[in-house]
């Protein structure tokens, strides 16, 4: 299917969504969010796609929600349409692993969108920020909550109150991104990571993802309890038998997603 604001392709077992509004630095218009949701629905339903990569251009992952679209909204517009709730949270509902490959600007809603993914791989030119305060507003797609959980209160306050940007190195040091790679290698490196994950058992990868995400929603004791139960459940799978047998037989496992 063709979209106006994104490009969609599959490469082996990996589905790639590229945000594509270059003239607006991939500002996240309502049309783009709709397209993104439809593309994610399609990849989630496609059994050949095992991992999803979300990326932008070399200059911008996304420079935020579309300010030109948003500027004239009234309070009632925002309230009645529940502005940004519908569609925006779609990426957080994905059951397959989603990797954000971020080059250039990831600002405002762009930073929030990247944080909704399961991990962020940054190019060395990446810049992250929550500059909404400069526009007389504030993060509205989870920035005050997810950034705080990623980097802690002091740095989240610093970012959200000053509106400054942090570079890739700072983002890596504070745990916002898992790896930094040279800009020219971003696509290849992210595809390697995605393919590594795609070669695992998909249901086990989905269980791991759910368990890690549960860490953000529960107390430690509840999270450990949840992890223990899901860990037990892996012993009901063929893939656990295959994985451990392959190790003992000194060969690569051949997972069947069962
Ligand atoms: C609409 C945007 C945009 C945005 C850039 N553009 N960001 N349009 N919404 N968020 C457009 C510019 O208007 C311009 O269009 C073109 O993209 C290129 O941008 P420039 O500013 O000329 O580029 P540059 O000088 O390189 O500066 C890059 C930049 C700057 C530092 C990223 O564009 C910038 O500050 N953008 C806004 C960042 C921001 O405040 N994001 C938060 C948005 S609020 P024209 O037509 O003039 O060429 C938000 C709220 C989230 O995200 C809450 C819920 C989702």
From TrEMBL:
Could possibly oxidize fatty acids using specific components. It catalyses: a 4-saturated-(3S)-3-hydroxyacyl-CoA = a (3E)-enoyl-CoA + H2O; a (3S)-3-hydroxyacyl-CoA = a (2E)-enoyl-CoA + H2O. InterPro entries: ClpP/crotonase-like_dom_sf, Enoyl-CoA_hyd/isom_CS, Enoyl-CoA_hydra/iso, Enoyl-CoA_hydra_C. The keyword Cytoplasm does not apply. PANTHER family: ENOYL-COA HYDRATASE, MITOCHONDRIAL (PTHR11941:SF54), ENOYL-COA HYDRATASE-RELATED (PTHR11941). GO terms for biological process: fatty acid beta-oxidation. Belongs to the enoyl-CoA hydratase/isomerase family. The keyword Transcription regulation does not apply. Signal peptide: none annotated. One of its GO terms (molecular function) is 3-hydroxyacyl-CoA dehydratase activity. This is enoyl-CoA hydratase. Its EC number is 4.2.1.17. The lineage of its organism: Bacteria, Pseudomonadati, Pseudomonadota, Alphaproteobacteria, Rhodospirillales. Coiled coil: none annotated. Keywords: Fatty acid metabolism, Lipid metabolism, Lyase.
């Amino acid at each position: 299917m063709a979209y106006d604001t994104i490009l969609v392709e599959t490469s082996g077992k990996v589905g790639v969504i590229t945000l594509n509004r270059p003239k607006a630095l991939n500002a996240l218009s309502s049309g783009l969010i709709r397209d993104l949701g439809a593309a994610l629905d399609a990849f989630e339903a496609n059994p050949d796609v095992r991992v999803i990569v979300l990326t932008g251009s070399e200059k911008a992952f996304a420079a935020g929600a579309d300010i030109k679209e948003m500027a004239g909204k009234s309070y009632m517009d925002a309230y009645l349409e529940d502005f940004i709730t519908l569609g925006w949270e779609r990426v957080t509902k994905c059951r397959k692993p989603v990797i954000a490959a971020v080059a250039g600007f990831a600002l405002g809603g762009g930073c929030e969108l990247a944080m909704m993914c399961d991990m962020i791989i940054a190019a060395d030119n990446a810049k992250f920020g929550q500059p909404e305060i400069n526009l007389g507003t504030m993060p509205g797609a989870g920035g005050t909550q997810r950034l705080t959980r990623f980097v802690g209160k002091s740095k989240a306050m610093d970012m959200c109150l000053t509106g400054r940007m942090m570079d890739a190195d700072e983002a890596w040091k504070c745990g916002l991104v898992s790896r930094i790679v040279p800009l020219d290698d971003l696509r290849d490196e992210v595809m390697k990571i995605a393919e590594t994950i795609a070669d695992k058992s998909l249901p086990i990868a989905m269980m791991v993802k759910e368990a890690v995400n549960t860490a953000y929603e529960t107390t430690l004791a509840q999270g450990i309890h949840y992890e223990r139960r899901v860990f037990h459940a892996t012993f009901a799978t063929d893939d656990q038998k295959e994985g451990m047998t392959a190790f003992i037989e000194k060969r690569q496992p051949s997972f069947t997603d069962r």
